[in-house]
Amino acid sequence: MLSANHLGKRYKSGWAIHPVTVAFEPGMHGLLGPNGAGKSTLLRMLAGLLTPTTGDATLGGESVRRTYRCRQRIGFVPQSFRMHEQLTAREAVCHAVRMRGATALQASADAAASLEAVGLSAEMDQPVRAYSSGMKQRLGIAQAIASDPEVLIVDEPTAGLDPEERFRLRSVLAELSQTKAVLLSTHVLSDIGICEHIHVLSEGRLLFTGGKEQLAAHARGLVWHWETSESEWRRQPSDGVVAARRTAEGLECRALAASQPHPYAIETEPSMEEGYLALIGASARHR
User: Fold this and answer.
1) Which of 31, 91, 147, 266 shows the greatest Cβ crowding within 10 Å of its Cβ?
2) pTM here?
3) Is 90 exceeded by the pLDDT of residue 98?
4) What is the CA angle 22-173-177, rounded to 5?
């Protein structure tokens, strides 16, 4: 189990990550938060790539910073990375595995297995320059898992991908989470659908750890639903609207509000997305 124990990072300007204590057991974890929340800083400390100001990250009780062997048990894919685009995918992964001390024979076998795991077997002998953005992201994951780490940390992997590539990448991560602890950082709420465990970070503070239903519960009593005509909507728009869908009769609206935002509004069950918005909003109001 990967654990953060009072793990924090402070710069001259203040806390980038306020000390957090949290554990990541095997399965799919989503680290969700707006841009600038501190997600990348936390991930780099968990991977042993950034020295914390307080506390430590441990894997099976061993500090991720103290031994190379421990860091080898963690695969890390940063938000942006460069590859030698003249190499083929097979050569790129073999090179990464050889850098970790494997023999040429073992590196070749590990590369083939990891490329198959991310769905790139058919393209493994194509040069990286011919790959799409999504294929390059999957290649980065193949490099990270080629040595069969226990933990995979992926920072904003779906940024800039089209819907098809995003779906394919999420499927790859979900499959890997069957045998590993996978920690996916994102600010895109739809990416969290595959996660069993959700962690919400905002302004360097860990606000929430739990499941989707628990996150949705943060908006219970605050979500309203009603239908209205377009002319009425233009004449008197309501505050707090989070969704408006055009129907044959007019508009179907949902709002996040402490009190009834429209005379016809009725209280309804919240979604995970609305729970997230309520949680972030409540945190901002208490700053």
Assistant:
1) 31
2) 0.88
3) no
4) 55
